[in-house]
Amino acid sequence: MFGKQSESILKHRGVLWLLFVVNFLGTIYGYIWYGNQLEFTAANYPLWLLPFVPDSPTASLFFTAAILWLLYPPKSLTGSTIRSLVEALAVLTSVKYGIWAVSIIAAGGYQGNELNWKDWMLIISHSGMAIEALLYARFFQYRKVLPLALLWTLSNDTVDYSYGVYPWLPSVLQDDVTGVQFFTLGLTLFSAAAAWLGNWRSRNL
User: Fold this and answer.
1) pLDDT 10s digits, 10-29
2) Tell me: the pLDDT tens digits for 57-69?
3) Residues 144 and 84 sit within 8 Å (Cβ to Cβ)
4) Cα–Cα nearest to 61, from 129, 163, 153, 137
5) SS3 letters for 4-37?
6) Which one of 53, 106, 114, 124 is separated from 4 by 20 to 30 angstroms, measured CA to CA?
């Protein structure tokens, strides 16, 4: 699917730095976007639930770190191990939440929620999250630790829907939370499979 020319473009340091900056800024914006829900969670739920609230920006944070490590690979065994786990989380969660956000916005629109420019911006940005993760998965080395990333993501899903700290849904989907929950769990498994298949270059590591 990809030749040497495409690989050289994707791994060009200028392209990597551009991706790093875009994802870094997107991560900051994402945490700001979740500001109201974080404040609500802090006021009404145990504080240990706060890290489980901002799903998409945390995914882009993982991908930002993974890109930085492509630019500056760690030299120690510990650093390489941490890098592998972050790469696994970056691909799995970026694919998952990229697809999840687009699907939820589309489902809300289908049920009558009026889409505005912010919704279209989120559709474009989250589609980009999933695409870039799959494009760069083959440059990462995470296959051995992907089960750990899957376990964490499933745990996150469990906490989200057990304690009610899942991302706020469009009002028209408030009566579909159970369906959203099962869709989310299925999407986690699908994204793990996509991460596994997309990492073909490291399959023998």
Assistant:
1) 999 999 999 999 999 999 99
2) 999 999 999 999 9
3) yes
4) 129
5) HHHHHHHCCHHHHHHHHHHHHHHHHHHHHHCHHH
6) 124
How far, in Å, CA of 142 to CA of 119, rounded?
33
Identity (one letter) of the amino acid at 120? W
Contact predicate 123/151, CB 8 Å: no
Residues 130, 169: Cα–Cα separation, whole Å: 20
Distance CA 64, CA 73 (A): 14
Distance CA 159, CA 166 (A): 8
Residue 134: half-sphere exposure toward Cβ, Cα within 13 Å: 19
In sequence order, what are the residues at sequence separation of 6 or more whose Cβ sits closer than 8 angstroms to the Cβ of residue 150? 92, 188, 189, 192
Cα 161–173–119 angle (5° rounding)? 105
Structure tokens of 13? Answer: 């340091």
Any idea which residue has 């579909």 for tokens?
176
Q: Which residue has the tokens 């009026």?
A: 114
* Triad 8, 11, 15: Cα angle to 5°: 110
